[in-house]
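Q: What structure does this chain adopt?
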Amino acid sequence: MRAPAPAYTSNDGVIDAARAALGGMLIDAVDHVGEVALHVRREDLYDAMIALRDTPGLAYQQLMEIAGVDYPDRAERFEVVYCMLSLTRNHRLRVHVATDEEKPVPSVTDIWPVAGWLEREVYDMYGVLFSGNPDLRRILTDYGFRGHPQRKDFPLTGYVELRYSEEAKRVVYEPVQLAQDFRTFDFMSPWEGANYVLPGDEKGALPQAKGAQTPLSADTIAKAAAAQSPTQAPSEPKSTESTAQTGIGKSESDATPKPANPDVIPTKGGGQNQ
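A:
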């Protein structure tokens, strides 16, 4: 039985209430696929978060997550996305802030202490700076890591790889060495038909057996069957059909009596070995 209450309340009136509470701090508000997204000025982020938390009718008390997005073609390539939850209204929304590699985003650790680790993750993965974070350092990558892995321009192989060295008896870092070149993909579906023959597809040019499923025509199948060499039946049977062919029951011409065994004592009527 389904719960009588909906999973989340509707978005009716949320954008209007956010516009009234934020005023000029709000750049744009979007209601798409059932989710509300508020784009806020970077300089006004801290005050906007206070307003979203304390304004009646909004009351987004919890910061659930902070995520990063990279758009390399934009002047401000990064977006920091704050996922908010209102416990009293059972509603969620997102707050978006745009920035680049140099302009810091105001930290919200004074409002939600949990933001400390979340901002460190965004900094580690994207290189976004947060002003006011008391401990802004890497949290996911190793010490001395170079670059930010979630950026679109970060190489897929990275710069260094680590392994355990038996000579040094410790983990060592080395430049990445690929055992083979990257494979090239054309992203064509084999079901839609490619312009080339994949390795092994040449075996499907002729049917393997008569009656097998094949896209070839009946004439091609008949020609393929005729081209196959016929199997010759054996001229003589491999097994015997009578005792005359085996010689069983016939005594040899030079047969002699079985020599007596001195260790065997004859019994009345004889035995099996006598």
